[in-house]
Amino acid sequence: MTKKFFASLSFIIASLTAFSQAGTGVYQFLDLPVSSRLAALGSYNVSLRDNDINFGFVNPALLTSETNNTLGLNMAFYLADIKFGSAIYGKNIDKKNFLAYGIQYVDYGLFKYANETNDQIGDTYFTAKDMALNIMYARVLNKNFTVGATFKPIYSAYETYTSYGVAMDAGISYNDSAHFFSAGLVFKNMGTQLKGYYSDDGGQHIEPLPFNIQLGITKKLAYAPLRFSFTLQNLQQWNLNYQSTNQQSTTSTTTKTTTTSSITTRNIQFLDMAFRHVIIAAEFVPSKNFYISASYNDRRAQELTMNGFKSSAGFSFGGGIKLYKFHVGFGTTQFQAGTASYQFSITTALNDFRL
User: Environment class of residue 122 by beta-carbon count within 10 Å: exposed (0-12), middle (13-18) or buried (19+)?
Assistant: First the structure.
């Protein structure tokens, strides 16, 4: 069964990799952190096996017998009053087969109609939203390995422009509890846009999804309450270069001063490029009911670098505690230089409320 799984997975990846580019395409909201803990861990962690149901979003193989009848709710305050969040519920089939159902969404708020000269048109407003349904399944192969898959219908609406598509995640988790070690491999967002936002001469304008291959390991120290994670992202694409518009040039004349932004492509050295694929995270876990997390995402730090402006971009922090029958978490990270995003989570096992 394991051989068939990897053979099918390899065929799917080979057919989709050629059509996917990191940082381009549609439905980029799928890469936003789905919980406060994941935000604190650098947005991605496919290896940490800690019975946290929210980790099923990033690797369905991280569902466990302990995520049965567990509910997770997550809410984040993004940029410019934009809000995003997720909700997830786990329901196991039996001791070796686990299910979970989740939803991710982004609400961009209300917008007032205006023409090309920014003159407002009446008092009519429109909205913009993204959402994706997640149907997750995991199966235990043996005492160390679990495989999983997620089916994701996606819907997006910006005013009268709508789009929908479908994606799939496939992952595997390895867990060695005796040595406090775990690892994970995930192929995320394999799929296609079924309907584009608009049509062109060739019909529907179809764009690629944010396909991402992620590999990670997690190791807890045997005699100290410390746990470290090392995650590699975008393994399907070595070159993560981008066009920068942060370089400004000023032209002065006797009558006016004009400031323009020039578009440049940075020359990134080998080690710099390699490190942009890496996320390093650490957790202080003195008990099952409390944790403090910190991480560094070098790609985010480099892409948010601005000349003459100091920022903590790339670093993320958070923590969580169990209060009564609820696990409450908080995380903060930067998606824009100088502006922090705050995320809150609450998780509970509904079985705890049974008399």
Answer: exposed
